[in-house]
């Protein structure tokens, strides 16, 4: 006699446990700067406003992918960040890494999100450096 056919998706208890396990491996901390459209600046250009989240756990690592442009190489992204699935991010937001392995960085690192993928147990953001600390 053969085993009964089971659904392809894991039960929600397994997914919940995978989310908890993934968050326990996120040993760094970051702040998500949510992009908001504002009025215009003094030159008549659209201005951006940023709303900062509370510090959240994340998993940061450096990684580099470059694209050849003529004789030069242009970075597509230079870091990869894992975030909990409960954190809301879009491609317009910025992220500042504030702590690595529980230790504060001497100068926080700010990134734009170049690509964003959502999985069952985590989100993955491919980041490109935009400045340091709270620079816009």
Beta-strand residue fraction: over 45%
* Apparent shape: globular
Largest sheet: 6 strands, antiparallel, barrel
Instruction: Please identify which CATH superfamily we are dealing with.
Output: Protein of unknown function DUF3599
Helix content: under 10%
CATH class category name: Mainly Beta
Using only CA atoms, what is the Rg?
19 Å
Given the helix and strand composition, which structural class is it? Answer: mainly beta
Whole-number total of structural domains: 1
Description:
The chain is mainly β. It has a single domain (29-132), classed as Thrombin, subunit H (Beta Barrel). Helix content is 10%, strand content 58%. It contains one helix and seven strands.
What is the fold's blueprint, element by element?
Layout: H1 12-24, E1 28-40, E2 46-52, E3 56-69, E4 72-83, E5 94-100, E6 103-118, E7 123-132
Antiparallel strand pairs: 1-2, 1-3, 1-5, 3-4, 4-7, 5-6, 6-7
Quick overview of this protein structure:
The chain is mainly beta and 136 residues long. The protein has one helix at 12-24; strands at 28-40, 46-52, 56-69, 72-83, 94-100, 103-118, 123-132.
Features:
136 residues; mainly beta; Thrombin, subunit H; six-stranded antiparallel beta barrel; 7 strands
């Amino acid at each position: 006699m053969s085993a009964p056919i089971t659904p392809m998706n894991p039960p929600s208890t397994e997914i919940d446990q995978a989310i908890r396990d993934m968050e326990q491996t996120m040993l760094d901390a970051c702040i998500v700067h949510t992009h908001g459209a504002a009025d215009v600046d003094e030159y008549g250009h659209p201005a951006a406003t940023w709303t900062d989240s509370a510090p959240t756990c994340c998993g940061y690592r450096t990684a580099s992918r470059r694209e050849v442009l003529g004789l030069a190489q242009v970075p597509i992204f230079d870091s990869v960040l894992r975030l909990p699935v409960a954190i809301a991010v879009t491609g317009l937001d910025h992220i500042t890494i504030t702590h690595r392995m529980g230790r504060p960085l001497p100068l926080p690192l700010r990134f734009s999100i170049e690509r964003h993928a959502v999985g069952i147990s985590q989100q993955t953001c491919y980041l490109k450096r935009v400045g340091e600390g709270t620079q816009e």
